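Friendly challenge for the regulars: who can give me the structure tokens for this chain first? No prize, just bragging rights.
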Amino acid sequence: MTHPTLLSVLKRIKQRSTDSRQQYLALCNQMQTEKPARGNVSCTNLAHSYAAAEPDEKNLLRQTQRSPNLAIVTAYNDMLSAHQPYYRYPEKLKAYALKQGATAQVAGGTPAMCDGVTQGQPGMELSLFSRDVIALATGIALSHNTFDGGLYLGICDKIVPGLLMGALAFGHLPGIFIPSGPMHSGISNEDKGKVRVAFAEGKVDATVLLDSEEQSYHSAGTCTFYGTANSNQMLLEMMGLQLPGSAFVAPNSALRDALTEEAVRLLVKSTLKQNAGLGYIVEAENLLNGVIGLLATGGSTNHTLHLLAIGQACGWHLTWQDIAELSDIIPLVTRLYPNGAADVNAFHDNGGTPAVIATLWEQELVFTDINTAYGLPFSAARCVPMLTDQKQLSWKNTSLISKDSSVFREASNPFNPTGGVKLLTGNLGEAIIKVSALSPQLGNTITAQAIVFDSQEQILEQYSAGKLNQDFIAVLPHQGPASIGMPELHKLTPPLTSLQNKGYKVALITDGRMSGASGKFPAAIHLTPEAAKGGIIGKIQTGDTITLNWHDDQLNLEVDEDRLNARAISQPHPASATLGRSLFKNARNNVSPANQGASFIL
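First reply, four minutes later:
Bragging rights claimed.
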């Protein structure tokens, strides 16, 4: 049996998505073929497509009736520590494919910006839009129409959602995502956070801060806190699009190589089969499993945007209300930084996503009968990979792994009976709040006067000048997707956390975003409608009283309607055209609201 709330949400999504899903599947059906796709192109086209291939590859590529050809779409660059290990992956993938009688070619690359570098910088205004650019780049890579499956190499924040959205535009093609793994643990995330707060308070200088950051971000691999990048990896396993337990295996290890080879082997088996493409795989149940995993692990709020956009890319209309309804029944079963002290290496040691799936399965809180990109029943997703003494890939049920109760708990005895991400509603509109990292000592509501700011820099300036030593709710409008691209405002975490640590009641309301690594103070984010679209957040004035209640899921401005109607929307600072921002004017003009995925291509 499946929990009745899951079934009711599923039914609602399927009903509202009937026409769009049928239209999407009709496109997939139109693109399907029973023989290698390159057999449909001319000899001139074909010769161009493998002119630079090695002789053994050419011999296979000439055989247009049987040997599948896999597209490698890579987001490699060596500035992102998470993506640096992908440097040698194409060579490995080609060799693994040849062992299966198939070929693999690098079809194209996508951009891959690092939010960790652009936090608080002008480039952050391009971050969310980079997701849709990646989707477009993936589409261009696959447009040569000589491929029978896709190998997608991506880890970080907007990159995995963008790759998946692009792959779903070619939903007739089977595909699988291949991770590269996290870096080994450095200093604890808790200690790193303390140094950041100390720097914000002027207690340590920039040299101490940089030393701390270098000890945290110190080698190749994904950053080890549970932000958007690692939430991506959890989602892919929850949705059946990545090999079970593969997300957090260390880079450049024998087990990592074995998993990568297995992913290629299983993908080759799926090629040239009818209805085996990713578009057919990602049913509403798969998408909702992603939501369930997000809630059960206290994952990144960014996915309240990405999951909506991914759903739209294959005909499913997921809403924030759906997420909120699931949040009422999905328990929080992990404590990972910033929701706890543990990092993703500790999560992996406690069974990782397979353990989450297993405990939710026992409580009928996950969809169990779903298709997977690797062609195995979803029951396999409850197992973690290991190598035998003979160096063969094997699988171990997570029930056999001892668990640290400070990191992982069973769904029958969770850290919290409800999910980590909630929907706020009220006269200001709709907003998202992450509650899994909030201390119980904060209570569950704050009523305070607003202080309206023009920018996050203004908040930092007033904090440094000692002007914010009081209870208040910071209001930061004109940060939404149609205004400046909806940047993350993670730079505000240290000063507002510092004020909260001093005993002041503080909160943030914004139509911008916070990082997946945030959540120590109450933050109503993604507020829709945004100020640029006439949202009431643009009418809030300093001194207004606001109530933010995350127990009853309410967000209200305590100003009477007549006074509010008489006010004009505040004017934003003129948008800057520097550092590439001028290139995204059309994106800002055409982007959908946050509660529809904040996309300019869907």
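The mean pLDDT is 94. The first helix runs from residue 4 to 16. Your move, everyone else.
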